[in-house]
């Protein structure tokens, strides 16, 4: 029932009639519809008529290859990504993506993007990221035997700096404004395959959201139904769009009868998708204020997030660091320690205070080990404690 | 096919004819056979005749409740523990236990041990641990709504100190030699349920290995056969014994025809099970030298590890920090970043250099984020890098 990829071609999200071959992946956005202000991403089109619907009768589990007909070719070997648990959490369900190979959702994207690098015959992969995305790309490149360059910034947490360097990639901390010109130079001159964004509004890797859509398949199998609403931490909205696309495919294939509302939970320090939706723009760029939620702190939004919120009847929700800290505490006090950015989904649900006609899923994206400040505190030793010192 | 627990009673590992009711769990070892030098643990006996063998036809996945007939009662709610991937890795398979709720194998034990605390009506749980075990106990206690006291030492890595405190437990760093008397006092005076060891040689919680035995069930389902050999990082050998017990149950139930050889991979800085096996003792205590593998660095061994190695036809293998570092690097360079202690299984396999008649599994227990030194290094920023600075 699973088998070869049924991916047919790339299609512009700026003009659905503009189609391109599946390879090479158009990592600089749609060449036909992008302008100096707005870049439109590409989407992947499949031969849906050939999909065996028994694909959705299997048990969810690790390794995205179980969904191979509905993914681009998976040339890169698995690290056992996906198949993460859905944990009941009061009135919602938490999809714990910290349970991936590098302890964030990014592994789903990188299995697919590093596969594209291999299928393209690239001599390596390059990524500009100071956190989860960079480490995950490094891990999948290492697994596939490809060199990787990670353009990091100096301000990620010390433990994350070690994480980025663990997998043997060439990791270089460079000043923030130099990362994207360097990325472009590495792509142009070394032929490395880029797995992060290169455009004025976000387009990223055209295959990236394909990895994330497997979350929708898993949620359907885990719940036994389609959730009424999904709240996701949103930076560039690749996760948001990917999950939305997965549910639209289940609907298109006749497996399900409805689709969920998608809530883009963005930091109040930025919020480019909220701005684009409010202004009726296909995508937007915003000024970014201070925030500790560095995993979702981007000034650059993309068209994918706008499409997912608009077409699903959802909303963009802005959450403050204080609201994320509350959500982080709520999760940790029930046994789930998440990175601050990873709690934006629950924080958005708590802020919205809305009832839904069916299950609600909050996606939690990443382990608490990756937070700013982790490892920075020191705790005193009690030399001669009494029982009173120990009672909670 | 799964259903209520078929656990019947506790049985002494010092005298198989000495049986005790299932509750209370005898957390201070067998009262009949233990001496001042050797403490014997209890084991859990089940009504195996009532087990539906279709239990072993299900897909492996998160939540130990899928194995409920063969576990003590699971009163504590799940965090989605278990169902970790088995990653092909050259000539071996790596069972990646960093994919549990608190990113180590300990979650399997704590689901079961915190359940015992709830079933016993204890007002809280107490644990002496500076690392994975303490954080995992804190997480499961939090999830179950029970207070937890963690008696930590001051020398665990800073990021792990934050991890221990994330779940809202009362965490107190106390001098090493005071931890066990305090633990005993908290048990005796507050009635807290202990989830770590209290005896002269290790006995630990009698239900602990029951959680670990689910790894054996998963390995059988993931491989489609019984491995020829299993290499586990070994401190107290609860993991080693648990996996062995799971395979003996599969054999006893007629599901499988053979059992694997079990290899106890211990730090060369200590190695109490290696010593006991060499000396023909039921358990041993050793002097502990310096090692960075703090997760497996114990001077106190237990009878369980001796039984697992002896009855399986396995061996104890001592590995140096240098050998673990090599194994850690080998794993990370293929996309799996493990805590140093967590690589002892692979390090043991590499040291032994032996061929086996069937698949070999190395259990990797924990995320690299928990290592000593993580977050302690600083990396320079390249202000004006050229392409030559970036090429791997």
Automatic annotation (TrEMBL), chains A, B:
Taxonomy, superkingdom: Bacteria
InterPro entries referenced in this protein's UniProt entry, alphabetically: Ser/Thr_Dehydratase, TrpB-like_PALP, TrpB-like_PALP_sf
Domain Tryptophan synthase beta chain-like PALP residue range list: 78-365
EC number: 4.2.3.1
Cofactor: pyridoxal 5'-phosphate
Any GO molecular function: threonine synthase activity
PANTHER family the UniProt entry points to: L-THREONINE DEHYDRATASE CATABOLIC TDCB, THREONINE DEHYDRATASE, MITOCHONDRIAL-RELATED
Name the record gives this protein: Threonine synthase
Organism listed in the record: Nonomuraea thailandensis
């Amino acid at each position: 029932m699973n088998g070869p990829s049924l991916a047919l071609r790339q299609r512009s999200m700026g003009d659905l009639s503009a189609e391109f071959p599946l390879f090479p992946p158009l990592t600089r956005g749609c060449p036909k519809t992008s302008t100096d202000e707005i870049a439109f991403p590409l989407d992947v089109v499949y031969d849906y008529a050939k999909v065996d619907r028994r694909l959705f009768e299997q048990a969810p589990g690790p390794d995205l290859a179980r969904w191979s007909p509905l993914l681009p070719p998976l040339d890169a070997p698995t690290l056992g990504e996906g198949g993460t648990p859905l944990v009941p959490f009061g009135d919602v369900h938490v999809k714990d993506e910290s349970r991936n190979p590098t302890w964030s959702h990014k592994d789903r994207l990188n299995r697919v993007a590093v596969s594209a690098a291999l299928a393209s015959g690239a001599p390596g992969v390059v990524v500009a990221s100071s956190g989860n995305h960079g480490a995950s790309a490094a891990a999948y490149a290492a697994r596939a035997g490809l060199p990787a360059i990670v353009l990091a910034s100096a301000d990620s947490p010390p433990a994350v700096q070690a994480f980025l360097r663990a997998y043997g990639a060439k990791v270089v901390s460079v000043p923030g404004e130099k990362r994207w010109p360097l990325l472009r130079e590495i792509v142009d001159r070394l032929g490395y395959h880029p797995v992060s964004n290169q455009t004025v509004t976000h387009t990223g890797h055209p295959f990236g959201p394909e990895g994330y859509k497997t979350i929708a398949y898993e949620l359907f199998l885990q719940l036994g139904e389609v959730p009424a609403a999904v709240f996701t931490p949103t930076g560039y909205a690749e996760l948001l769009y990917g999950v939305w696309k997965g549910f639209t495919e289940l609907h298109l294939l006749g497996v399900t009868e409805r689709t969920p509302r998608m809530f883009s939970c963005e930091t109040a320090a930025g919020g480019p998708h909220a701005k684009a939706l409010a202004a009726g723009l296909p995508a937007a760029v915003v000024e970014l204020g201070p925030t500790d939620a560095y995993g979702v702190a981007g000034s650059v939004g993309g068209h994918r997030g706008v499409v997912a919120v608009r077409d699903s009847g959802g909303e963009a929700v802005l959450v403050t660091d204080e609201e994320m800290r509350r959500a982080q505490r709520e999760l940790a006090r029930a046994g789930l320690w998440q990175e601050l950015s990873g709690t934006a989904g629950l924080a958005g649900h708590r802020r919205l205070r809305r009832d839904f006609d069916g299950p609600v899923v909050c996606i939690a994206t990443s382990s608490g080990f990756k937070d700013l400040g982790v490892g920075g505190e020191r705790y005193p030793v009690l030399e001669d404690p009494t029982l009173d010192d120990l009672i909670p």
